[in-house]
């Protein structure tokens, strides 16, 4: 894959009070601003087709950490960045958020301590990219990557820190959050297609639902069943009345 930089030249978007009220409002607004860029993030690669964009089911605690930081950094709109990783890592990211290698989670003792898989060319931190195609290089055993919102740190004059070409490195876990799962498919035979995240589980659910389809009873048969039940109820009521008269 030939990589081209997708770093946007203008980040001047507005965050209104309603967008900061909760994570759902923010994500909805973020997608409204960036949906075209997300949908066409791989348009320069005709052999790769985006097949689905899904909401990332992010843990509530991860949402809360991000929204706290966002409410303290309202002067600049969060950046759209992408992250590609192994299939097994996506579940952990959704549960615990992005983690910094060789560091314990600052508030969640259940979060695992991870190790760096691709080196640390620009120091320790969470690596993301402004290029969706670049993120595909780090995907393993899945056809899903993450579209994220990132709050980069800035220096005193407003310059973004730890920004290297199309790579953005974040120093704290609350600076980035996955918003969307992007499923894609290779259209040529040069690259192997793998299942999308949770695709196999979803297929099993769909299959079970097919097996457990409701039984449709004809109206004629249902009427007979109801008439029989009504007859039994009437017989039982007559028996109860007679018994009552007998004992009195």
UniProtKB/TrEMBL annotation:
SUPFAM superfamilies recorded: ADP-ribosylation
Species of the source: Rotaria sordida
Transmembrane segments: none
Domain spans labelled PARP catalytic: 73-141
Protein name according to UniProt: PARP catalytic domain-containing protein
Gene3D superfamilies: 3.90.228.10
Gene Ontology molecular function terms on file: NAD+ poly-ADP-ribosyltransferase activity
């Amino acid at each position: 894959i030939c990589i081209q930089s997708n770093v946007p030249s203008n980040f001047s978007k507005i965050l209104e009070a309603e967008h900061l009220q909760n994570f759902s409002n923010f994500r909805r607004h973020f997608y409204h601003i960036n949906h075209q860029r997300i949908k066409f993030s791989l348009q320069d690669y005709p052999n790769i087709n985006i097949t689905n964009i899904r909401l990332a089911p992010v843990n509530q605690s991860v949402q809360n950490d991000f929204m706290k930081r966002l409410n303290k950094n309202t002067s600049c709109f969060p950046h759209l960045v992408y992250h590609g990783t192994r299939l097994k890592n996506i579940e952990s990211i959704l549960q615990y958020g992005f983690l910094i290698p060789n560091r314990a989670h600052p508030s969640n003792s259940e979060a695992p301590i991870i190790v760096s898989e691709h080196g640390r060319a620009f120091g320790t931190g969470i690596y993301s990219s402004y290029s969706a195609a670049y993120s595909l290089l780090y995907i393993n055993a899945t056809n899903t990557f993450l579209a994220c919102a990132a709050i980069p740190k800035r220096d005193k004059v407003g310059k973004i820190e730890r920004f290297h070409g199309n790579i953005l490195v974040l120093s704290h876990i609350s600076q980035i959050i996955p918003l969307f799962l992007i499923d894609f498919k290779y259209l040529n035979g040069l690259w192997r297609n793998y299942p999308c995240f949770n695709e196999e589980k979803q297929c099993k659910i769909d299959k079970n639902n097919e097996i457990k389809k409701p039984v449709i009873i004809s109206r004629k048969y249902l009427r007979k069943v109801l008439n029989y039940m009504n007859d039994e109820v009437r017989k039982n009521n007559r028996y109860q009345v007679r018994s009552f008269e007998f004992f009195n």
